[in-house]
Amino acid sequence: RVDGGVDASNAGHIAAEIRRFTKAQAPLIIDLSRLEFLGIEGFQQLLALNHQHRAAGLYCNIVTGAAVRPLTRVVTDHGLPLVKSVPEALQLI
């Protein structure tokens, strides 16, 4: 789960931490439901992470929230695997 905000100052660090979990080659759920702010840099990192997961054939879902919705409304062709809750993501595994 990522709390607080993701902007240019921390997007790379947060993405690097998430990539540590992907090394386990296990399903991944990124919970952004409590995120207060998501800047474009954080959104770009999500797109890159999603691309890497798909290329590696790994399961990943992103739990959306209020901070994610404005960007996904503007960028409608994002391809991110969004779900509304962690239980929903677990059901899809």
How would you sum up this structure, described in words?
This protein has helices spanning 11-22, 40-56, 69-74, 86-92, and strands at 4-6, 28-31, 35-38, 60-63, 82-83. It is an alpha/beta fold. The strands form two sheets. It has a three-stranded parallel sheet with strand order 2-4-5. The chain has a two-stranded parallel sheet with strand order 1-3. The model has no long low-confidence stretch (mean pLDDT 92).
Which features characterize this protein?
4 helices, globular, two-stranded parallel sheet, alpha/beta, 93 residues, 3-stranded parallel beta sheet
Q: Quick summary of this structure?
A:
By secondary structure, the chain is of the alpha/beta class. Helix content is 45%, strand content 18%.
